[in-house]
Design a protein that fits this description.
32% of the residues lie in helices and 24% in strands. The chain has 361 residues and is of the alpha+beta class. A seven-stranded mixed sheet has the order 4-5-6-7-8-9-10. A five-stranded mixed sheet has the order 11-12-13-14-15. One of its GO terms (molecular function) is hydrolase activity.
């Protein structure tokens, strides 16, 4: 039996959930006047994404789209008939470029001849992909070799990344969102609040007067968003961006109803931000505690993520491990050396300077 407050809201891990149960897969629920929560199925262990339909005077604005699958299109077909009642989609907003958020943005745009809104960095990232019909290139293999991964193992990771599920319908146009941009939808003003780390320029939508925050993947309850380093930018420091974004989001009121992309809507934003910060600080401490002797990223992955299931989990976990390692190298806590073609990480000599310069090879 769940603990409930005086409003009947479920209390769990310091967060307050207005709805004890989510809608069934493919179903909707109105969470505020003119704001509908659509539970779109996904073909993974994380079996859903939350999309949001915003009612406007003459139609609907869709926030995020689901993956590029036939199942997604089938659900949309029914929702457009039964929920949207024949009224058109006037615009699509993609919080970020990931395939479960932007997968059929171009398909909806073509069907309704409507614009797609997203930030410039997310639009650019949408078009950076490894060609699925070619073997992995030297840069991909080199990235994983340096992490301690064999070429055979890397090829299996490449196969996961090349799955058609992860390839959104090509999008050839967008309207740019920026920090502070405002969208007027159905008499409600939604202000763009950007975050970084999980993706380059993630757009959250904040309706101040109604206390609503569509947070996408930038703030999730219970689970943590992936903050990873991948072959496209091997020395990136996304964890620094992520932690800075936590500070940025604290400027929003703690009282907002957070409408996330996964799990259930919740209250107590600031408490969740504290939890996310504590999670990553704990991972950093754990990594440092295991770097008295030089370790590869693959070895450190087994420390930070001791229980993994399959190559997809490994892909995400290794990216996160490298994000924490790159953060500690950048602030001078770890040293990164090359040993027989692999990066090895060890605690820095006391008083060493942070790695603020880049080698050209």
């Amino acid at each position: 039996m769940a603990d409930l407050d005086h409003n009947g809201h479920e209390l769990r891990a310091g967060l307050r959930y207005p709805w004890v149960q989510a809608p069934e897969s493919g179903q909707v629920r109105e969470v505020a006047p003119g704001v509908w929560w659509l539970r779109m199925p996904l073909p993974f262990r994380l079996d859903h994404i939350n999309l949001y339909l915003l009612r406007d005077t003459h139609g609907w604005v869709v926030v995020d789209t689901g993956m590029n699958t036939e199942q997604t299109r089938e659900v949309w077909g029914r929702v457009l008939d039964e929920v949207c009642a024949g009224l058109p989609v006037l615009a699509v907003v993609c919080t970020h470029f990931h395939s479960d958020h932007a997968g059929v943005g171009a398909w909806l745009s073509e069907r309704f001849q409507c614009p797609v809104y997203m930030t410039a960095s997310e639009f650019q990232a949408l078009h950076v992909r490894f060609p699925a019909d070619q073997p992995p290139g030297w840069d991909f293999l080199d990235f994983y070799r340096k992490a301690g991964v064999s070429d055979e193992h890397s090829a299996e990771l490449f196969t996961v990344m090349s799955n058609a599920h992860f390839l959104p319908v090509p999008l050839n146009h967008f309207r740019r969102l920026r920090e502070g941009s405002c969208l007027e939808i159905g008499g409600r003003t939604w202000q763009v609040v950007t975050g970084k780390g999980h993706s380059p320029e993630h757009a959250c939508l904040y309706a101040a007067e109604d206390g609503l925050l569509i947070s996408g993947d930038q703030v999730l309850p219970r689970i943590t968003s992936t903050v990873g380093v991948h072959a496209t930018e091997p020395l990136a420091n996304p964890l620094l961006d992520w932690l800075d974004s936590i500070t940025h989001l604290r400027s929003l009121p703690d009282t907002v109803l957070v409408l996330p992309a996964h799990e259930r809507p919740f209250f107590n934003l600031h408490h969740r931000l504290d939890q996310l910060d504590a999670h990553h600080q704990g991972q950093l401490v754990l990594m440092l505690a295991n770097c008295d002797e030089p370790r590869t990223a693959l070895e450190l992955m087994s420390v930070l993520f001791p229980r993994l299931s399959g190559r997809f989990d490994e892909l995400m976990a290794l990216g996160e491990t490298l994000a924490h390692a790159n953060y500690l190298v950048a602030n001078g806590s770890l040293e990164r050396d090359v040993d027989r073609g692999r990066y090895r990480y060890r605690c820095a000599v006391k008083g060493a300077c942070p790695a603020t310069s880049l080698k050209v090879f």
